[in-house]
Amino acid sequence: MSPIALAERRPVVAAERLIAEMVPPPRFQGARFSTYIPDPQQASQSDAVRILSAFAEGLTPRGAAPAAKKRWFGRSTQPATPAGPGGIYLDGGYGVGKTHLLASLWHAAPGPKAFGTFVELTNLVGALGFQQAVQALSGHTLLCIDEFELDDPGDTVLVSSLLTRLAEAGVKLAATSNTLPGKLGEGRFAASDFMREIQGLAARFRSVRIDGQDYRHRGLPEAPPPYGDAEVEELAFDFGPGASLDDFDALLNHLSDVHPSRYGALLDGVDAVFLRGVTAVPDQSTALRLVVLADRMYDRELPVVASGTAFDSIFSEEMLNGGYKKKYLRAVSRLVALARDSAVVAERAATR
Questions:
Q1: Is 25 within the bounds of a domain?
Q2: Are 232 and 299 in a shared domain?
Q3: In a domain, 195, yes or no
Q4: Cβ–Cβ under 8 Å, residues 252 and 294
């Protein structure tokens, strides 16, 4: 059986699937507070577990009446207002476990609840329309937003308006990012309106700082060197069903014709990704699309076997020093982690 060609797929995704898929990705389906392993040298990581656990315990299922305050002689007053902030914001660098903790919060919270990346949230609004998105999410107990990033003023206004409406409806919010709430726009857009929107969002969250180094690099070997083109192709055919095989340039060109909300569907049925001729990404639009694809591959724990340029060299210095630096560094971290998993693919092929 020939490998799947991602560049030949054109998935169509219904809006209902976008809503149903607002759950933690497969990589974090088993994430719990008890399975998070704090770095013993970083007290902030243990503190974050404690704070988030308390936040989860304070959540009340939508539709359930909060416990009433008791008076003497058994008389009761009005139901107690839930304590704590309207949202939790996890700030920290790459690989300190923010997504693990956010997914743990989601699993610990009563439903209904939703979990998605910032991009997936904006895509949902684009698919449903603003009012329908508000209606679909306003009955939720909790909305978790992973990788909270504001790339342009339009998205800022959109998400600010959405979160304001949801917060007013009683939805609790939780988010991760790599920047403090009040500094999300630094190095990108300095317009006064943009900064005002950011400050409004920042006020809704309690910031919880998580320090530490990228766990993907804690004592782990460096990324393996790239394979040869012929070796990538041979391994793809040896892998059997579930392998995808593409020329890197062709795949990047194809991504421009597929809406990012469909990148997950693009990977349906894929268990390992094989890429020939990885090269430096030519422009920022292409780079941002690759970032989304890398996120979807990482969510699904898909090993990547690639030839050509190593993944830590695919973004130019100009890109890495620009406004989207954090996105590109996250993509490098994740692609390198997936490239390490290529050793498992090679071992599997050797035993066939």
A1: no
A2: yes
A3: yes
A4: no
Contact 142, 106 (CB under 8 A): yes
Q: Contact 211/240 with Cβ under 8 angstroms? A: no
Tell me: do 71 and 129 sit in the same domain. Answer: yes
Give residue 280's domain range.
Answer: 6-11+221-350
pLDDT tens-digit map of 97-142: 888 999 999 999 998 999 998 878 887 888 788 998 999 899 999 9
**3-class DSSP state for residue 246?**
strand
* Amino acid at site 296: R
Q: Are residues 226 and 193 in the same domain?
A: no
Q: Which of 302, 239, 234 is nearest to 266 (CA)?
A: 302
Query: Nearest Cα to 90, choosing from 214, 208, 185?
Result: 208
Do 57 and 206 reside in the same domain of the chain? Answer: yes
Query: What does the pLDDT look like over 222-267, one tens digit per residue?
Result: 567 899 999 999 999 998 889 999 999 999 999 999 988 889 889 9
Bridging pattern class, strands 272-278 and 304-308 = parallel
